[in-house]
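User: Could you check the structure of this?
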Amino acid sequence: MVVIIFGVSGAGKTTLGKLLAQKLGWAFYEADNFHSSANIEKMRAGIPLTDEDRRPWLESLRELIKRLDPKEDAVLACSGLKQGYRRFLRVNDQVKFIYLRGDYPLIANQLRKRKGHFMSPELLKSQFADLEEPHAAEGILTVDLGRTPRELAQEITTKLGLRK
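Assistant: Sure, the predicted structure tokens are below.
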């Protein structure tokens, strides 16, 4: 199974993803590591990425998911802001999505506390503008922020029926 944790920048995808992967004994992948240096420089400069900028990045992530051994479970932290991106990454029925939902003030506060990340905090507004919240038909588990990462990880493992 591949669990993709998605949401806007600052939602806590990496923190929660690493915790969940550690708890389950799964591999963890950070989608930011698959961005080109040009994309990283744009984000560092506060310039929102376009769909065209994201296309090679999404293709790399799709290839990663396809390359994983069917017996290898993994967690991927990825923005996945648009329904089309999520549809593209759902290469099979073993790909599950977890949406980290929070309002702008909550996530802006979390983003202010983050250190050492290339993403400019000024891009949060563009992230919310690009975000297409999941519809019920997408079969996505939505987790509301505002609790500790440990509490969120427990909710995810319970709702997905995962145990370690």
